[in-house]
C-alpha cells in the first residue's frame, strides 16, 4: 500500500529539514574557519541499508560519499546487528568509501519502538588530521600513510558513553587538537539533533509510515531522473580533459569520458584515463562517483531530490588503478584536481547533444592554500586553511559569474576581517582580474587576485592549485578562460613564480603570497557579442580596451 502523496511530500521535506537542522547545529558550534566560515561540511539522513534519503544544501562533492562509507561500514566493519542506541561511528578511510583523510564522517543510528529506523550522518573537513604537512595537504606524499591519521570505522560513542581513549588518540596525532576536537564534537552534537527530529516525525506518523516514505522517496527520484534521461537522444558522446600535472612529474594527466545514453540510463565510462600517480593527485571511486552524480544531476534536472534513487540510473565504469579509481596505498588528498576535471569533461561531452543546458569550463579546481606559522616560539603554532575560486564558464544565455564558487564544492567566502582577527595575516589585494574571462557571445567569469602578507616570524606555504597550464575551455567558438598563477613577493625586487602544487615553501615576516585564479571559458563567437555588453564590460573594468578591440572588434569613436 502506497503512502498518501501529501504525507509523502510532507515527510520528505521534513527529513530535509532534519538535515538542515543538523547543519545549523554544526554552523553554530564549530570552531575552525574551515567549517564555521567556509562551510566545508555536510549532513544527511539515511535508511537502515545506508542509502541516502535527504541531505542539507552544503557540499555537492559529498553527494553519496557518506552513503558509500556507511554501506561499506555496514558490509565490512560493523554490521547492523552490532549497532546500539547511543552509538556513534567515526571513519575517514578513503579506501572504505571515503574521499580523503581530512573529511571525517560520523554516523548515529535512530531507534524507535526497539527497531532501527534510520541513520543520521555528518561529514566535516577538518583543519588538520596529522601527516607530513600542516593542514594535512602533503603535496610530496607518495603513500596514504604520509597524509595523516587514518580511522577505520570504529565506535566513537558506545551506547551513549564517550570513547575517551579514542578521542585522546585522535588529539595526540593532530596539530590543532582543541580546534579539531571541537569541530568533531560539533558533528556529534548535530547527530543528536537529527535523531530528535526523526523521532518527532515518528511520533506524528508512526514507524511504518516513515519507513514506507523512505522507500517511496527513493523510487520517486529514480523515476523522475529516468524520465528526464529519456528526453535526451540515445547515443554516445565523448570528451577528454586534462589535469596540469601531479606536482612531481611534469606531464599532463588525461581524463577520458565516454557518455552513453540508452533509454532511461546513462553510462559514464572512464576507460583510457591515465593510471594512478605516486603523488596525491588521485581520486578514490567514491570521489569519482560523487563528481559524476553532481554533474549529471545538475545538467539534467537539479530540482530532483538528491537521494539514493537519482544514482540508480547512472552506471559508472572506472578502471581500478587509474586516477579516477585509485587503489591503496595511493595518496589522495589532492583528489579535487581529478573531480573538477571530471565535471568539466562531462560538460564538454554532453555539449554535443544538450548545449542549452551546458556551460563552458569553469575555473576547475578547489584552489587550496595552507599558510602555517610557529607563533614566534614554536608553541603558539597556527594553521590557516582556505580555498579560493575563479570564474564560471558562460552558458548559451548568460555570462559566467565572476569569482564565485561553482561545481562540486559550493564553498562560502571566508571573511577577510575574520582571518585578520584570528591569524597574523594581512590582506593587501583582493580584486577581480580584467580579461581573465574567455571572450565569447557570452563572456566567461573573471578570476581574482588575492595577496596575503605573512606577519609571523616564520612559517610555510602548501598549495594544491591546478589549471595553470591547461586553460578552462570555451565552447562553440568561445575563447578559453585565463589560467591561474601564484607569485611570492610580486611587488618586491625579486618576485618568484610558484608551482601550482607548492610544497613547504618557507615564509618569513613580511613575505606576500599572491594568487591569481582562473577565468571561465566563453560561449559562442566573440564577434556575436552585443556591443552594449562590451561597452558595459569596459565601464566596469572587466575587460581592457585591447580586449574590446581585438577580441570583440568594438569600433569606438
Provide a descriptive summary of the structure in words.
The chain has 557 residues and is of the alpha+beta class. It has two domains: 5-223, no CATH class; 359-557, no CATH class. It has eleven helices and 20 strands. It has helices spanning 5-29, 33-36, 65-77, 164-172, 177-205, 207-230, 285-300, 336-350, 416-422, 531-539, 545-550, and strands spanning 41-46, 52-55, 88-91, 103-112, 115-125, 154-158, 161-162, 235-243, 253-262, 265-269, 314-317, 367-373, 382-388, 425-432, 448-454, 458-464, 485-488, 496-497, 505-508, 512-516. It has a seven-stranded antiparallel beta sheet with strand order 2-1-5-4-3-6-7, with helices on both faces. A five-stranded antiparallel beta sheet has the order 14-15-20-17-18, covered by helices on one side. Strand 10 (265-269), helix 7 and strand 11 form a beta-alpha-beta unit. Helix 1 (5-29) runs antiparallel to helix 5 (177-205) and helix 5 packs across helix 6. The longest helix is centred in the middle third of the chain and has 29 residues, at 177-205. The protein is globular. The termini are far apart. The mean pLDDT is 94.
- Strand order, sheet with most strands: 2-1-5-4-3-6-7
Number of domains: 2
Task: Give me the secondary-structure category.
Answer: alpha+beta
Globally, the shape reads: globular
Global Rg = 24 Å
Sheet with the most strands?
Answer: 7 strands, antiparallel
Average pLDDT across residues?
A: 94
With helices defined by DSSP (H or I, 4 residues minimum), what is the helix count?
A: 11
Give the distance, in angstroms, between the N- and C-terminal Cα atoms. 74 Å
Tell me how many strands there are. Answer: 20
What percentage of residues falls in helices of 4 or more residues? 25-40%
Q: Could you list the spans in which at least 5 consecutive residues all have pLDDT below 50? A: none
The proportion of residues in beta strands is 15-25%
Amino acid at each position: 500500500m502506497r503512502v498518501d502523496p501529501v504525507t509523502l511530500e510532507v515527510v520528505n521535506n521534513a527529513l530535509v529539514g532534519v538535515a538542515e537542522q543538523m547543519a545549523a547545529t554544526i554552523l553554530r558550534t564549530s570552531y575552525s574557519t574551515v567549517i564555521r566560515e567556509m562551510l566545508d561540511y555536510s549532513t544527511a539522513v539515511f535508511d537502515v541499508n545506508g542509502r541516502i534519503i535527504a541531505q542539507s544544501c552544503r557540499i555537492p562533492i559529498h553527494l553519496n560519499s557518506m552513503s558509500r562509507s556507511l554501506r561499506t561500514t555496514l558490509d565490512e566493519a560493523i554490521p547492523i546487528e552490532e549497532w546500539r542506541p547511543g552509538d556513534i561511528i567515526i571513519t575517514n578511510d578513503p579506501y572504505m568509501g571515503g574521499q580523503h583523510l581530512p573529511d571525517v564522517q560520523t554516523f548515529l543510528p535512530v531507534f524507535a519502538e526497539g527497531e532501527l529506523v534510520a541513520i543520521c550522518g555528518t561529514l566535516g573537513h577538518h583543519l588538520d588530521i596529522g601527516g607530513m604537512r600542516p593542514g594535512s595537504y602533503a603535496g610530496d606524499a607518495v603513500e596514504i600513510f604520509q597524509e595523516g591519521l587514518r580511522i577505520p570505522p570504529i565506535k566513537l560513542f558506545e551506547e551513549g558513553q564517550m570513547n575517551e581513549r579514542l578521542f585522546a588518540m585522535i588529539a595526540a596525532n593532530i596539530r590543532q587538537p582543541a580546534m579539531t576536537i571541537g569541530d568533531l564534537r560539533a558533528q556529534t552534537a548535530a547527530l543528536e539533533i537529527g535523531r530528535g527530529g526523526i523521532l518527532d516525525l515518528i511520533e506524528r506518523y508512526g514507524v511504518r509510515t516513515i519507513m514506507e516514505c523512505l522507500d517511496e522517496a527513493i523510487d520517486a527520484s529514480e523515476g523522475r531522473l529516468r524520465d528526464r534521461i529519456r528526453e535526451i537522444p540515445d547515443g554516445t558522446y565523448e570528451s577528454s580533459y586534462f589535469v596540469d600535472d601531479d606536482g612531481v612529474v611534469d606531464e599532463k594527466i588525461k581524463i577520458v569520458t565516454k557518455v552513453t545514453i540508452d533509454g532511461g540510463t546513462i553510462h559514464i565510462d572512464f576507460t583510457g584515463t591515465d593510471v594512478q600517480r605516486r603523488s596525491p593527485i588521485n581520486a578514490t571511486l567514491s570521489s569519482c562517483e560523487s563528481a559524476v552524480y553532481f554533474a549529471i544531476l545538475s545538467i539534467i534536472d537539479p530540482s530532483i531530490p538528491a537521494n539514493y534513487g537519482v544514482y540508480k540510473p547512472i552506471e559508472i565504469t572506472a578502471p581500478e588503478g587509474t586516477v579516477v579509481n585509485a587503489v591503496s596505498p595511493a595518496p589522495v588528498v589532492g583528489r579535487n584536481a581529478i573531480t573538477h576535471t571530471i565535471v568539466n569533461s562531462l560538460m564538454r561531452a554532453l555539449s554535443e547533444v544538450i548545449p542549452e543546458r551546458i556551460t563552458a569550463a569553469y575555473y576547475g579546481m578547489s584552489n587550496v592554500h595552507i599558510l602555517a606559522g610557529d607563533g614566534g616560539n614554536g608553541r603558539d603554532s597556527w594553521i590557516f586553511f582556505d580555498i579560493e575560486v575563479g570564474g564560471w564558464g558562460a552558458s548559451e544565455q548568460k555570462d559566467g559569474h565572476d569569482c564565485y564558487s561553482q561545481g562540486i564544492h559550493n564553498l562560502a567566502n571566508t571573511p577577510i576581517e575574520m582571518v585578520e582577527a584570528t591569524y597574523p595575516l594581512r590582506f593587501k589585494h583582493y580584486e577581480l582580474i580584467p580579461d581573465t574571462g574567455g571572450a565569447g557571445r557570452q563572456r566567461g567569469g573573471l578570476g581574482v587576485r588575492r595577496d596575503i602578507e605573512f606577519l609571523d616570524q616564520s612559517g610555510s606555504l602548501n598549495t594544491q592549485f591546478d589549471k595553470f597550464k591547461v586553460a578552462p575551455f570555451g565552447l562553440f567558438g568561445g575563447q578559453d578562460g585565463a589560467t591561474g598563477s601564484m607569485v611570492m613577493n610580486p611587488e618586491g625586487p625579486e618576485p618568484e613564480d610558484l608551482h601550482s602544487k607548492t610544497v613547504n615553501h618557507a615564509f618569513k615576516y613580511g613575505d606576500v603570497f599572491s594568487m591569481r585564479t582562473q577565468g571561465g571559458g566563453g560561449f559562442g563567437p566573440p564577434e556575436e557579442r552585443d556591443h552594449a555588453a562590451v561597452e558595459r564590460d569596459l565601464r566596469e573594468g572587466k575587460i581592457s580596451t585591447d580586449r574590446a578591440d581585438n577580441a570583440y572588434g568594438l569600433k569606438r569613436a
